[in-house]
Structure formats: structure tokens, C-alpha cells
From TrEMBL:
Domain Transcription regulator PadR C-terminal: start-end pairs: 90-170
Region named Disordered: 177-198
Protein name in the entry: PadR family transcriptional regulator
A Pfam family reported for this protein in Swiss-Prot or TrEMBL: PadR
Classification via Gene3D superfamilies: Winged helix-like DNA-binding domain superfamily/Winged helix DNA-binding domain (1.10.10.10)
Amino acid sequence: MSVRQSLLAILDQGACYGYQLRAEFDRRTGSTWPLNVGQIYNTLDRLERDGLVRRGEADELGHVYWHITEPGRVEVRTWLDEPVARTAGTRDALAIKLAVAATLPGVDAADLVRRQREVSARILEELRASHLLDAATDDAEDFARSLVQEAVVFQAEAEVRWLDHLAGLLAQHPTPAMGLSLSTQTPKRGRPVTASVA
């Protein structure tokens, strides 16, 4: 989730103060990923440092309004125009846990996968029950909320499918054969040598 670009996109609609930005973010994401005000102000400070927003004067109630700059508008347009590329290097805590567990001698990785699938399937059912999706709504906030909620449900479905796939892979490999003992090779310090291009 890109808080930075989301806040910039909201500011592109008009100047806002911190709590107002948080409320606008919540309206547009269905409060699925609530932000705390400290996170908002830290992000605004970084955006100001980078020349993408400027701090305005405080109003009679003490609200400091933030204004987007032209470089900020360019960043919003770039963010909206570029597709999101999910990189293969993204750290997924569950995938890392199960990959390590599958290589540890004496650990029943298939049992870990089975228990994780039970939890993931239960969460999926809870998500489906609590997010009665209505993408046909004419209300902009309801529509935005349903988009985010559908993404969460689809991700949970994908996790359950992946766990089923992993269970099948583990069934094909005997547990002791997949265990890795500690390597006896001494790791080299520093960065790996890269091949020179001729």
C-alpha cells in the first residue's frame, strides 16, 4: 500500500490538514488499512522535504493545510499511470516460515501447512461473511470499500489455493529427504563478485 502516493493524490484534489487527510484516505479505502495521525504527519514531513507538498498557514482552529506542488502533481500522474508490478522479492512472512520449516530436520512441514490452511480457510470464510460485497452500488464510498474488500477476499482465496498446492508438493517428497543440515562451508564476507560484461 502506498500511503505516500495516496496522500498526494488526495492533496491533488485540494489542500487538507492531517486529520482531514486521514478521514479522506479512510473514505477511499473503506477503512481497511487505518492510518494513525502520526503516520500521516511523518509522511507529510517527508513529502515536504522532497518538495512534493508545502505547508500552509494555520487557520483560526489551528489546522495547518498542506498543498501539493507541481512536482507532487507529476508524481501523482506517474503513480496513477504506471501499473503496479508485484516484485518476486517481496517478503512474505508465511512463505518464508514454511520454506524454512520444510528444510528443518525433524519438523513436520505438512502438519504446519495443514494447520495454517485451517486458519486461512476460517479467515477466508469470515471475510466472505463480513464483506457482503455490493459492487453495483451507486455510492462512491461503498464502491471504493467493496473494491478493497474484494481484493482482500481474493488474496485470502489465493493463499488457501497456494497452501493446497504446497500440501501436494510436500506429499511428493519424504520429510527426511528435504531436511538441510547446517552447511560446513564458511560464508564469504562482503558482496558477491559480479561477472564482468565483455
